[in-house]
Design brief:
single chain; alpha+beta; Ribosomal Protein L22, Chain A; two-stranded antiparallel sheet; 3 helices; 32% strand; globular
């Protein structure tokens, strides 16, 4: 199979998104299509302002550079990466398809209902998930100390540390200006 994996073998038909950074790997699973995950260490991107100036929308640039907050940058960056994974696109030319306002209102270029995002921290990393589900339910997860021998996605791992998503927000369709006739 070419490209990144997006479906599981067990249970068949489930969708997945993978992310890794430094010493941590993550996998998000859903019975529905439209799931994207990104993780970043909380201390990453010492020169994050250069990324903002190059790749973010003008309104994102204004508020992020004025706030001068590394934490806000990381949340926006992981939101954009998870959005692109969930919508099946790469970074090149697509980072502006999700716009994040200063109050973290999310506006995306998809019109399907149910898009939402959540994030939390675990083990010094920011974990961000974007997914499509008409139910507005905050997702959760588990931090495993080691890879289990059974990778069946339906298995429960009671020894795993819970991951609590402390932030959860819907993604609204971007309002497009009316075309003049």
């Amino acid at each position: 199979m070419a490209g990144r994996p997006t479906a599981s073998a067990s249970p068949a038909g489930w969708h997945l998104s993978l992310s890794h950074s430094q010493r941590l790997s993550a996998c998000a699973v859903s019975a529905r299509a439209g799931i994207g995950l990104d993780i970043e260490p909380l201390n990453r991107h010492p020169q994050w302002q250069k990324v903002v100036r190059r790749w973010f929308t003008p309104s994102e640039q204004r508020w992020l550079l004025a706030n001068n907050s590394h934490e806000d940058f990381l949340r926006v960056w992981t939101l954009k990466e998870a959005w692109l994974k969930a919508t099946g696109r790469g970074i090149a030319g697509n980072l502006q398809t999700l716009e994040v306002s200063a109050d973290f209102h999310l506006s995306g270029d998809r019109e399907e209902p149910g898009w939402q995002a959540a994030s939390g921290t675990v083990a010094g990393f920011l974990v961000t998930l974007v997914y499509c589900d008409e139910r507005f339910v905050r997702p959760g997860g588990r931090l495993l100390a080691e890879v289990p021998t059974n990778l069946d996605l339906t298995a429960l791992w009671p020894q795993a540390e819970p991951l609590t998503m402390s932030w959860h927000q819907p993604v609204t369709p971007r309002i497009r200006p009316c075309e003049e006739s």
